[in-house]
Amino acid sequence: MDQHEMELLEKHMPSNPELKTLWDEHILYEKQLEKLTSKSFRTPSEEQTLRQLKKQKLDGKTRLMELLGELKKQEKNQ
Hints:
The chain has helices at residues 3-12, 17-37, 44-77. The protein is mainly α and 78 residues long.
């Protein structure tokens, strides 16, 4: 995420609950992924959790980037 996108995120999170939720989830998934990936050995259950977290994080980031794209368009039109 570039600097402009981070600025848009900070500017619009207070007034956009979906944006805030997506960002909070992104941070949460990142922390959970770091915890799992730092383990030298993972159980099959942890591997499944890791795959699921990666998918959830990607889905959330995709939606987050869509919203930020819409906000960029709105800025250009002003």
